[in-house]
Write a structure and sequence with these properties.
This protein is of the alpha/beta class and 468 residues long. It folds into three domains: 214 residues, 3-Layer(bba) Sandwich (FAD/NAD(P)-binding domain); 109 residues, FAD/NAD(P)-binding domain, CATH 3.50.50.60; 111 residues, Enolase-like, domain 1. The protein is built from 13 helices and 24 strands. The strands form six sheets. Strands 1, 2, 3, 4, 5, 6 and 19 form a seven-stranded mixed sheet that branches. It has a five-stranded parallel sheet with strand order 8-15-9-10-11. A five-stranded antiparallel sheet has the order 20-21-24-23-22, sandwiched between helices. The mean pLDDT is 95.
Length: 468
Amino acid sequence: MAEITAKVLVVGGGPGGYVAAIRAGQLGLDTVLAEQGGTEGGLGGTCLNVGCIPSKAVIHAADAYHHAVEQATVAPFGLRVERPTIDFARTVDWKDGIVGRLTSGIGALLKRHKVKIVQGHAELVDGKTCKVETDTGPQTIRAEHVILATGSVAAPLPPLPFGGKVISSTEALSLQAIPGRLVVVGAGYIGLELGTAFAKLGAKVTIVEAEDRILPAYDTELVRPVAKRLQALGVDILLRARASGLAEGGDAVLIEEGSGSKRSLPADRILVATGRRARLEGFGLERLDLTMNGPFVAIDERCATSMRNVWAVGDITGEPMLAHRAMAQGAVVAEVIAGHRRVFDGAVIPAVCFTDPEIVTVGLSPEAARQAGREVRVASFPFQANGRALTLGADDGFVRVTARADNHLVLGIAAVGAGVSELASSFALALEMGARLEDIGGTIHAHPTLGEAFHEASLRALGEALHI
């Protein structure tokens, strides 16, 4: 049995794992990355292989197709085209090409920084030893430090186990044809992103949600434009409803509504998008004596677990399950191991929902700020008054700023609108740098851009709005 010794062993090659390995390599630490691959992907993890990147590719293709369909009928810009068609199998090939290119890039970066990659099923023996079953035989890896970065998996719904017509987001992103009738179970961001995309591609989409509204993690004001758009796309939404299984024959999903009534929804595919859970099984975690935080591995501000020199990053450590959070944690851990004084501060983590329109949030909502005992100033600026939004033909939505009433320190920023995901970094930077309303109001914003709405919302909170 081959044996490898290293300073650092990273278990899992997703965003948290590969960033930890690259940063460790940059810092001169002898590093090994063990990555299994499988249905959730190889290097790049869920995010790159079957999550963030492929879903945005499909969303973009769906947007392009839907816009072309609109130009064939209403032609608001004076542009007329014949009724378009889409070869979805070719769309999926294009998506796979993007994934392959980025995956190869990660492999090249790891190699450049002298990280040894071991492909195969990793099984922890203890807090310093791991056995990996590779194509060429078993290997034992011994390391002074172990970083757990095993990510998460789609959470199954007991009445609708995955298989056949019941799919997760992984299978949804690799379909070779657009389903005629798609039932989406779960109205969180994954369900709505993919449900919107398939509706634009021509599927008849029905969304089933147990709560009393869609996107329950976001406040009602932000969700309203998304709900309006779903209605315009012909998406049916069933609230206070639960999927209880497949009908006999498997061609419909059984629904129990809040009123107690029952019905069946015909479906060619049923996308279960009720969340994700930490990947805790299958790699020997039970052999470690780790303190748990409910269904997650408990960590401190350095991402250290309860075992000495065992660290954990990403989805295995809990919410929010976001790739950029995992990346930041991975970099912190590598630097701590190298002797740097670092902590992970998760107070400013932007969240983006790639629905139509998109939603961005960072920091506190007005309600959360008030619940924390703050007196706040809140102001919004609508895209209906923004020149760039009007020229894009996408004026639904707004930018909202929440600040302390006494010293005007910005506590939270949110936006809903077309393309607002690109404002996420400036929002996060403002909070990270401790900006006050006067800082944003005094910054010259380029015209015409969507970012001017951020400027105007801050001015409005000061009572100095110029364009509303």
